[in-house]
Amino acid sequence: MVTAVVGANWGDEGKGKITDMLGESADIIVRFQGGSNAGHTIVNDYGKFALHILPSGVFYNHTTSIIGNGVALNIPDLFREINEIVSQGVPKPKILVSDRAQIVMPYHKLFDQYEEERLAGKSFGSTKSGIAPFYSDKYAKIGIQVSELFDEDTLREKLESICVQKNALLEHLYKKPPIDIDETMETLREYRGMVEPYVCDVSSFLYEAIKAGKRVLLEGQLGSLKDPDHGIYPMVTSSSTLAAYGAIGAGIPPYEIKRIVTVVKAYSSAVGAGEFVSEILDEPVADELRKRGGDGGEYGATTGRPRRMGWFDAVASRYGCRIQGATEVALTVLDVLGYLDEIPICVGYEIDGEVVKDFPTTVKLAKAKPVYTTLPGWKEDIRGITEYDKLPENCRNYIEFIEKELGVPVKMVSNGPGRHEIIYRD
Ligand code: GDP
Asked: How large is the average pLDDT for residues 149-157?
């Protein structure tokens, strides 16, 4: 049985918390896309952690954590993260790394930086972790798979050929020093030493596991609207954020993904540039929500950047759920809204004088103005409530309004950052 936990919005929906929570009854947790560019914040019995590359299942003794072939594998980041959690008292996790995962090279990070510098004010707001250059190389077929670390001669030959192209760009476009091949080979030897104990044919491991009835969780990074095909292109990430890609990025049959838990945030937040229709433009109002949001404020887990804040966007979230193929919704951070007298919800986009309910392409999105409906707030702290019926009526109305807009059952309501702060609905 395979379950995917994915985001319906712009990321930061609280997938880490939901994965950590569902991990309790899982055997295997797989990261299938993205890299160490975004982060999940998790609060559990060991403390508070910001994970960037490790799957959110690393806190359990009984789970195996997998870095699938679809991930942008930053080997030093992976090992830094393992050491960090172990030094904070978490038992050493069982980790497997796909032999088909590709490696974020030291020069990917440099190219990311140089390109952002070159674009200056017109940049994509990259986290500069080398993710876009990494995926560009992967699809240009000049990436390096983990398996290739183990054949030095072929690796060097390949690197030499890659460097002809890279060094031409470095010299002429960016005016920077060339890549030193000997030094890069030395780094790759170190990477090999770090990763060797964990390397595995993940697809075959998962095939056997699924056959044996193991419970597998696929953990997505970012959300639907950052998907390179279906999101707000070009302000997207470089790998697919969709549950469907879980089949590819983990190497399992698509029909095995039976449950798609789509995490929807009770309000909106986004990092970096890009269209964001329901953004709160009144800065003091946005800042109040930002400060109260998430667990300790809405600031990026990797970059510390303040997130852009918005009201719940039913148009974007409905689309986000549909494109994920959501079988159920986990509605998160609802407790944060308890201070508001009334809560606007964006229920339509006005584009060229017409109100639309379907999420448009980016060109049209740029012209969209939000159409709001306002619901009364509940003015109560709902943390600690464990039964749906005990929630204030206005709070239930807010949830049920959203559920109707999404057209997908809201089966979980998260009312606090902690692992057990969750209300299940039948
Ligand atoms: P992810 O990348 O989707 O895992 O999301 P992030 O970790 O970036 O952001 C979610 C933030 O909200 C984290 O700080 C979580 O601890 C916190 N969080 C998750 N669920 C809840 C919730 O229901 N209530 C509150 N107050 N915080 C939550």
From this structure: 96
Q: Which amino acid is at 91?
A: P
Out of 169, 196, 223, a domain closes at 196
Phi then psi dihedrals of residue 387, to 5 deg: -120, 140
Q: Decide: 226 in ligand 1 pocket, CB within 6 A.
A: no
> Residue 301: what pLDDT?
67
Ligand 1 pocket residue status of 417, Cβ below 6 Å:
yes
Supply the pLDDT for residue 101: 98
Same domain? For 279 and 359 the reply is: yes
153 with 241, same domain? no
pLDDT of residue 278: 98
Catalytic residue among 12, 27, 112, 137: 12
C-alpha span between 367 and 357 (Å, rounded): 14
Ligand 1 atom 14: residue of nearest CA: 295
What pLDDT does 57 receive?
82
Which of 291, 332, 413, when mutated, tests ligand 1's pocket best, judged by the most ligand atoms within 8 Å of its CB?
Answer: 332
**301 and 235 in a common domain:** yes
- Choosing from 20, 40, 313, 335, the catalytic residue is 40
Task: Report pLDDT digits (tens) over 252-310.
Answer: 999 999 999 999 999 999 988 889 999 999 999 999 999 999 888 998 766 778 999 99
Regarding whether 65 and 44 lie in a shared domain, the answer is: yes
12 is catalytic: yes
Q: In which band, very low, low, confident or very high, does the pLDDT at 123 lie, cut at 50, 70 and 90?
A: low
Q: How many structural domains compose the chain? A: 2
Task: List, as own/partner pairs, every contact residues 398-405 make where C-beta atoms lie below 8 angstroms and the sequence separation is at least 24, other chains included.
Answer: 398/266, 398/334, 398/337, 398/343, 399/331, 399/334, 401/345, 401/375, 402/264, 402/266, 402/312, 402/314, 402/317, 402/331, 402/345, 403/329, 405/314, 405/317, 405/318, 405/345, 405/347
Do 112 and 64 belong to one domain?
A: no
Band of the pLDDT at 44, cuts 50, 70, 90? confident
**159: containing domain:** 102-196
What CATH number is attached to the domain comprising 290? 3.90.170.10
CA 267 – ligand 1 centroid, Å: 12
Is position 95 within any domain? no
Q: What was the pLDDT predicted at 302?
A: 65
**277 in the same domain as 394:** yes
Q: From the CB of 219, is ligand 1 less than 6 Å away? A: no
